[in-house]
Amino acid sequence: MPSELARQVLDGSPRALARVITWVENDDPRAVECLEILYPHMGRAHILGLTGSPGAGKSSLTDQLTHHFRNAGKTVGIVAVDPSSPFTGGALLGDRIRMSRHAGDPGVFIRSMATRGFLGGLAQTTDNVVKAMDAAGKDVVIVETVGVGQDEIDIMRIADTICLILAPGYGDIIQSMKAGVMEIADIYVINKSDHAGADQLYTEVNSRILQDSQIRKRDREPPPVVKTVATEKRGIDDLMAAIESCRCQLKESGALLEKRRERIRQQTFQMIQFALFQLLEKELAQNGRLDRLVDAIIEKKENPYQAMREIVDEFIKVPAG
Ligand SMILES: Nc1nc2c(ncn2[C@@H]2O[C@H](COP(=O)(O)OP(=O)(O)O)[C@@H](O)[C@H]2O)c(=O)[nH]1
Ligand SMILES: [Mg+2]
Asked: Is 0.85 surpassed by the pTM of this model?
């Protein structure tokens, strides 16, 4: 029963939360029923996005940050949407060990997600997983994902605060610039600062930010650049401070509300779009109508433009006035 499960999620049951998330991932209609009940309890978590190339140190930093949040008495949800992640399928043993210290902690909920085959889109699915954790009462939800494509940028938009994790020797900057991740980051992290080349990367990133702020004349402060060594717990306090300062700034300036408003606008529209799409797909597939239409288009008895107009007119009736 979705309503019973939703209640258990609100009571803090990790099993119930895991179950709801599975429904979300499988596009099970019961997921929507649950999320509907959970909706009034969403919007409390601080959603933190960590993005960057595979191997840059996202999981190691997630682990360190989780440790700090827990020490501060905060509960943490982790969503890893990362093919190279310790939480997804073919994980490296070392990575598993890295996160395992939180495995037995009831204040930490970890979920990994594959990056393939979500009908409603990867970003939408990730968003609903994050929302379930938020409703379950997690104070912070960390989303870890590889910052390479449009999908990942869409995922990052779910986050209130976005950290771009860079490390020397990955050609990261150019890659990230291409993908447009540089532009959406709130905090830049130079991880593996123990490696040669970290100082150069630090200088490069700073000059990029300076250039960017000159071009766009942003009204907000330039984003901070923090050096870390995740494996030696170095710079984590600085990173925590930057995250906290970002969160306060977001809240006080009203930017958080604005961000969330925009997100709700987009998501609501996307949900409507997806629901309509599914309805229409079902209707057209029935009795082989779409196949017949395609045949007719190939034989030039019909053209696709007119077919599109007719079908839209037939199914979507916008009341006049
Ligand atoms: N030397 C060094 N190694 C690190 C650092 N952070 C992470 N690593 C190592 O880099 C590898 C990849 O880290 P991981 O956190 O799995 O990266 P992810 O793919 O971005 O999640 C692991 O072997 C880590 O132990 C760091 O600051 N310095
Ligand atoms: Mg990882």
From this structure: yes
For residues 74 and 173, membership in a common domain is answered with yes
Alpha carbon of 211 to ligand 2 centroid (Å): 30
Q: What is the pLDDT of residues 256-279, one digit of tens each?
A: 999 999 989 988 998 899 888 888
CA atoms within 13 A on the CB side of 49: 26
- Could you tell me if 175 and 247 lie in one domain? yes
Name the H helices within 163-197: 172-179, 181-184
Per the structure, how many domains does the chain have? 3
Report the pocket of ligand 1 as residue ranges, CB < 6 Å.
52, 54-60, 84, 95, 191-192, 194-195, 229-231
Residues 161-211 have pLDDT tens digits of 999 999 998 765 666 665 666 778 899 999 999 999 999 999 989 988 888
Are residues 202 and 195 in contact, defined by beta-carbon separation less than 8 angstroms?
A: no
From the CA of 57, which ligand is nearest?
1
Q: Can you give the residue range of the structural domain that contains 181?
A: 42-253
- Classify burial at 302, counting beta carbons within 10 Å of its beta carbon; exposed 0-12, middle 13-18, buried 19 or more: middle
Q: Please give the C-alpha separations between residue 194 and each of 65, 67, 209, 288, in angstroms, as whole numbers.
A: 19, 21, 23, 62
Q: Which residues surround ligand 2, an ion (CB under 5 A)?
A: 58-59, 82, 85
Q: How many CA atoms lie within 13 A of 164 on its CB side?
A: 27
46-100 tens-digit pLDDT: 999 999 888 899 999 999 999 999 999 999 999 998 655 444 444 444 444 556 6
Q: Show which of 212, 232, 253 is a domain's final residue.
A: 253
Report the candidate in 227, 171, 168 with the shortest Cα–Cα distance to residue 196: 168
